[in-house]
Write a structure and sequence with these properties.
Layout lengths: L1 H15 L3 H8 L3 H8 L9 H8 L4 H5 L2 H15 L11 H9 L7 E5 L5 H8 L3 E6 L2 H14 L3 E5 L11 E6 L8 H13 L1 E14 L8 H4 L4 E2 L2 H4 L5 E12 L6 E11 L3
Helix pairs in contact: 2-3, 6-9, 8-9
The structure holds S-adenosylmethionine.
């Protein structure tokens, strides 16, 4: 933990363009204290955390290394360990849109980011795409591999955390369904730019994300969907791409056992240059 906090303080201080001395002055400690935090020798006192979070315009969870996401990931571990496929094995409707916009009439390299138990990745592989897929939760990937075997397709599944994993090779299609709300605000630009930079010209992004609407109240909102995006936010990242279609829907949900609603934005965008 000490190391994670220190690394985060270092990264956020640099991002703000502050020297160790300047940060130290703002929070009334010595620059040696800041240096020790950043080198993992010691950690800031607990009462420092709100001050630091305020200066870095982030929340305390982010400063501490995303423990909320860790909790979320542990929840998924439990879900995926149970019998059957938590999300089913039928592909999402988004997959059919991808097939219309980018049909696999030549070998297309497709990435499914945060693929869960692999229902979409396996569908794409079955339809001729060359599929790579990752998720942070191993039991989900185990089930995904079993599904791929059963169907008789090859998918390159691997474990990765999208908060710190970055692409280093190119894809023709990047698909991400039901997971972007795990990305805190301060990492969205960097992650999406990395995905965009590693997309071929003419390549497609198909993404959806839960968004906040003041009139759409969800009981599980705070815990489960704390990083919901602003309505329309995802579209802004594609201002320089051809937006083939974008959409916002409000739908009923029964997760957690009580009826509620969610709002979701979906974008299909094609890289032009
Ligand atoms: C709602 S499920 C969607 C799964 C899959 N995309 C689908 O449509 O069936 C969200 C997925 O995001 C994954 N996830 C959450 N945070 C993640 C992270 N930081 N890195 C990678 N995967 C993550 C979870 O493990 C889970 O499988």
């Amino acid at each position: 933990m000490t190391n994670a906090v220190g690394k985060n303080i270092y990264a956020m201080r640099k991002k703000q363009g502050l020297t160790q001395e300047e940060l130290a002055r703002l929070i009334n400690v010595s620059f040696q204290a800041v240096s020790k935090w950043e080198n993992g020798v010691s950690a800031p006192d607990i009462y420092m955390l709100p001050l630091l979070a305020n200066i870095f315009h982030c929340n305390i969870d982010s400063l501490l290394g995303y423990p909320a996401e860790q909790q979320k990931i542990m929840d998924y571990e439990e879900r995926y360990k149970s019998d059957g496929y938590y999300w089913g094995t039928q592909p999402s409707n988004m997959c059919y849109e991808v097939m219309k916009l980018c049909p696999p009439n030549r070998p297309l390299r497709l990435l499914d980011a945060a693929c869960g138990e692999g229902k979409n990745a396996v569908f794409f592989a079955r339809n001729g795409y060359s599929v790579t897929a990752f998720d942070a939760v191993e039991p989900g990937l185990d089930k995904a591999r079993i599904l791929a075997d059963k169907v008789g397709v090859d998918v390159n599944f691997f474990k990765a955390d999208m908060l710190n994993f970055r692409l280093d090779k190119e894809f023709d299609v990047i698909f991400c369904s039901g997971a972007l709300h795990y990305i805190p605000q301060d990492l969205r630009k960097e992650i999406l730019e990395n995905y965009q930079d590693h997309t071929s010209i003419g390549g497609l992004h198909a993404m959806n994300v839960f968004v906040r609407k003041p009139f759409v109240k969800s009981p599980s909102d705070e815990k489960e969907f704390r990083y919901k995006w602003i309505s329309g936010e995802i579209f802004t990242y594609y201002a320089n791409w051809l937006i083939a279609s974008c959409d916002e829907i409000i739908f009923d949900c029964m997760s957690g056992g009580s009826p509620h609603k969610h709002c979701m934005d979906t974008v299909y965008a094609i890289r032009q240059s």
